[in-house]
Amino acid sequence: MAPQTFTTRRGTRATAGAASWSRNHNTVRHTPKTLGSLSNAMIVGVLVLIVGLIYVAQGTQATNYDYELSEIEDEIAELTAKKEDLAVEKARLTSIAAAENSTVAAQMEDGQVAGYVAE
């Protein structure tokens, strides 16, 4: 069996024998670990899922703003209709007050039943 060689931190090669090891030198070789194809596919799937959820959340947030805007527009329309009704009521009350204070209206007689037609 051939002796194992290791690469040290300083880039020198050492054999597995105890004589070649020196004090305070790292004689362990670390190999990089890689993920398998299934793990990579799962990570990509999770990332796509997260991006999709963010997209849906943003879409529903825009829809919520549309509903709020619609409610505010309905409230504005309702308040505008009330304002118009109050303007009509003000005009009616103003005309009644003007008619009561009018000299022409003061000289008019109250309406009475003149009589009925006899048969």
Task: List descriptors.
2 helices, 2 strands, mainly alpha, rod-shaped, 119 residues, two-stranded antiparallel sheet
Give an overview in words:
With 119 residues, the chain is mainly α. It has a domain of 42 residues. Helix content is 58%, strand content 5%. The chain contains two helices and two strands; from the N terminus they run ββαα. Strands 1-2 form a two-stranded antiparallel ribbon.
How far apart are the first and last residues' alpha carbons, in Å?
146 Å
What's the helical proportion of residues?
55-70%
How many separate helices? 2
The biggest beta sheet is recorded as: 2 strands, antiparallel
Large-scale geometry: rod-shaped
**How many strand elements?**
2
> Structural class of the secondary elements?
mainly alpha
List the helices and strands in order. Answer: EEHH
Q: Strand order of the main beta sheet, please? A: 1-2
- Percent range for β-strand residues: 5-15%
Low-pLDDT stretches are none
What Rg, in angstroms, do the CA atoms define? 48 Å
Output mean pLDDT: 80
